[in-house]
Amino acid sequence: MKINILTLFPAMFAGFKGESIIKRAINSGSLEINIIDIRDYTFDKHNTADDTPFGGGAGMVLKAEPIFRALENTSGKVIYTSPQGVTLNQNLSNDLSAEEEITIIAGHYEGIDERVIEEKVDLEVSIGDFVLTGGELPAMVIADSIARLLPGVIKKDSYEQDSFYNGLLDHPHYTRPAEIDGLKVPEILLSGHHKNIELWRKKESLKRTYLRRPDLLEGREFTKEEKKLLKEIVEEL
Asked: CA–CA separation, 12 vs 6, rounded Å?
């Protein structure tokens, strides 16, 4: 998969591309991240990529022409990082991971010229109801959420257990040692009984979701096993 990212600050992505799972995905050939400096497509000697907004007001607006020119070298779905967009969730990440190529425009200042959005943008995406100084971090978040789903990047059974992948929060995790200053790992996890362990994890996942994010359970089609576990959880509480 190829992810193009249009930005005014390409240096911000050096660490992102050079560490951890993203680096592994790139080295394996599963992922290509192409960082495009918007200033490379400006017209004047000062590489001016922004200007004051028509009608007045505070802040600056990214100019349309450089972005239009930069997009000529890309293909696939075009995404703009925007607080006005749909909120990124696991289902959207799953859908985007099936694309062969996407392009993310990292907004900055007051945003980009609306004509770019009207003519070129297929989807506006927000990572939450808060404001950042630019779209670079959201672009990284979107790319990271996609990259880990690509074949061969991480084991499928690893990300299938993550929070939100199956619509629930993840269960608790523990590792060695089994006891620290009197704090013990649940005995079930030391039993070696894989079926009981799996059942415990499902119950804890449901319990966490019920207590912390009950909104995720609204409209969910529960299995018979989940209904039974949820009944037990409610009675225990």
From this structure: 12
pTM value? 0.87
Residue 148 annotated as catalytic: yes
Q: Residue 7: which residues within 8 A CB-CB, separation 6 or more?
A: 13, 35, 36, 37, 38, 106, 108, 135, 136, 139
User: Catalytic: which of 50, 136, 138, 148?
Assistant: 148
Query: Considering 50, 66, 83, 136, which one is annotated as catalytic?
Result: 83
- Asked if 36 and 4 touch (Cβ cutoff 8 Å), the reply is yes
Tell me, yes or no, if 37 is annotated catalytic: no
Residue 170 to residue 160: CA distance in whole angstroms = 10
pLDDT per residue of the chain (237 residues) written in tens, 0 to 9: 999 999 999 999 999 999 999 999 999 999 999 999 999 999 899 999 999 999 998 899 999 999 999 999 999 999 999 999 999 999 999 999 999 999 999 998 889 999 999 999 999 999 999 989 999 999 999 999 999 999 889 877 666 666 577 889 999 999 999 999 999 999 999 999 999 999 999 999 999 999 999 999 999 999 999 999 999 999 999
